[in-house]
Specification:
Blueprint: H1 2-24, H2 28-43, E1 46-55, E2 67-70, E3 77-84, E4 87-92, E5 95-100, E6 103-108, E7 114-116, H3 132-140, E8 146-154, E9 157-165, H4 168-176, H5 182-185, H6 190-199, E10 216-223, E11 230-240, E12 243-244, E13 247-251, E14 258-262, H7 272-281, E15 291-292, E16 295-296, E17 303-313, H8 325-330
C-alpha cells in the first residue's frame, strides 16, 4: 500500500505534464509532418513558383483614390521564377534577374544579360526579391507549432492545410533576412523614416537597427496529402494602422518609397456605410478564431492586412533559362 501511495502522485504529475505539452502543441502529428515537408521543400533540386504580395482587402473593392504614393515603388508586387542548379531566376514584368553564387545577372525586355549587384538592368534599385527555397530552409529550422489543420482542395486537387502563427522573434528573423515583404511584417513606419531623414544631416550616422516588426504573422501551408510537397503557401501579416496625414505609411522593399494608405481595412473606400458593414463583420473580442482557407480571421478594424502568396509547381523538374558561354563567364562558371 505504501508503494501505491508513492506512485499515484507520479502518475498525476506525468498526466499534468502531458496535458501541458498538448496545450502548448495541440497538433503534434501535424507539427512533425510540417517540419518534414519544409525540409523536403528546402532540399528540392529545383522548383518553379509564382509569388504575389499585396493588401488583402477581404473581397472589398480597392479605392486607389485614397492612396498617396511618394516615390516610384509600391508595397504590392509579383514575380515568377524558379530555383535550380544553385541558382535563382526571377521575372517581374519586363525585368529578369538571375542569382548564382555571389553574382547576379539582369536583363530587360529580353535583351542581353548584364552583370549587376542590387540593381535591375537599367540601374533602378531592386525591390523585394522572393526566394522560396531559402524561406523554406529558414522555416524548417524554426520551432513551429501547428495551430490548425484542415482538408480542402486547390486547383481541383486535394490538399491538407496546416497553419502556424509565428512568434515575434521568428517574424523579426524573417524580416531581417529579407525573406518577407516589409508590408507583411510591419517592419517599417514613420519612426524609421524620421530617423533616416535625421541621420542624413551631417557626419556619418551610427548604424541603428530598424523598428521591430509589429505584425501578427500567420502562415497557411497547402500540402499534397501523399507526398507532403507544398503547392501553395500564404503568409498573412496583420498590424496596427500607423496614422499619418490620414493614413498608414508603408515602405516598399529596396527603393525606400513611401505609400500612405487610408487607415482601415485594406486601404478601401472608408465611407460611413462601408465602415458600418466592416464593423458588423468583426468577430467578438473573446470569440474563438475562425479559419478561412487555413488562415485565422482576425479583427480588421483599424488594422492593415497584407498577404504574400506563393504557388509552387514542377517540384524537382523546373527549368531555368539557358545560358551561353558569355553569360556563364559573367557568373564565373
Amino acid at each position: 500500500m505504501q508503494g501505491t501511495r508513492t506512485l499515484l502522485p507520479l502518475f498525476a504529475l506525468a498526466a499534468f505534464a502531458a496535458a501541458q505539452d498538448n496545450a502548448q502543441d495541440p497538433l503534434p502529428a501535424a507539427r512533425q509532418k510540417l517540419q518534414k515537408s519544409l525540409a523536403a521543400m528546402a532540399a528540392l533540386p529545383s522548383c518553379a513558383f509564382e509569388a504575389k504580395w499585396a493588401v488583402d482587402d477581404d473581397g472589398k473593392k480597392k479605392d486607389d483614390t485614397n492612396v498617396i504614393v511618394v516615390g516610384v515603388t509600391d508595397p504590392d508586387g509579383d514575380a515568377k521564377g524558379a530555383w535550380g542548379d544553385g541558382a535563382l531566376y526571377l521575372q517581374s514584368g519586363d525585368d529578369e534577374v538571375l542569382y548564382a553564387g555571389r553574382r547576379m545577372l539582369a536583363r530587360q525586355s529580353g535583351g542581353e544579360w548584364t552583370l549587376r549587384r542590387g540593381r535591375y538592368q537599367n540601374g533602378a534599385s531592386l525591390e523585394f526579391q522572393p526566394d522560396p527555397q531559402v524561406l523554406f530552409q529558414i522555416l524548417s529550422a524554426m520551432d513551429l507549432a501547428a495551430v490548425h489543420r484542415e482538408a480542402g482542395s486547390l486547383h481541383d486537387r486535394p490538399v491538407e492545410t496546416l497553419t502556424v502563427t509565428l512568434n515575434p522573434d521568428q517574424v523579426a528573423e524573417l524580416a531581417h533576412a529579407g525573406l518577407l515583404p516589409q508590408s507583411v511584417t510591419g517592419a517599417a513606419g514613420v519612426n524609421g523614416m524620421m530617423f533616416f531623414l535625421a541621420a542624413g544631416g551631417g557626419g556619418k550616422a551610427a548604424r541603428t537597427a530598424p523598428p521591430a516588426p509589429d505584425a501578427t504573422v500567420d502562415i497557411a501551408f497547402h500540402l499534397d496529402p501523399g507526398t507532403g510537397m507544398v503547392h501553395r503557401m500564404v503568409v498573412r501579416g496583420t498590424s496596427k494602422s500607423n496614422v499619418a496625414m490620414g493614413g498608414r505609411v508603408a515602405f516598399a522593399g529596396g527603393a525606400g518609397a513611401v505609400r500612405v494608405v487610408r487607415a482601415g481595412g485594406g486601404g478601401g473606400g472608408g465611407d460611413d456605410e462601408d465602415e458600418e458593414k466592416a464593423d458588423a463583420k468583426e468577430p467578438a473580442k473573446d470569440a474563438p478564431l475562425q479559419y478561412k482557407d487555413g488562415l485565422p480571421q482576425r479583427p480588421r478594424k483599424k488594422m492593415q492586412v497584407y498577404d504574400y502568396a506563393i504557388d509552387l509547381r514542377d517540384h524537382g523538374a523546373a527549368k531555368l533559362p539557358a545560358l551561353d558561354d558569355k553569360q556563364k563567364a559573367l557568373l564565373g562558371r
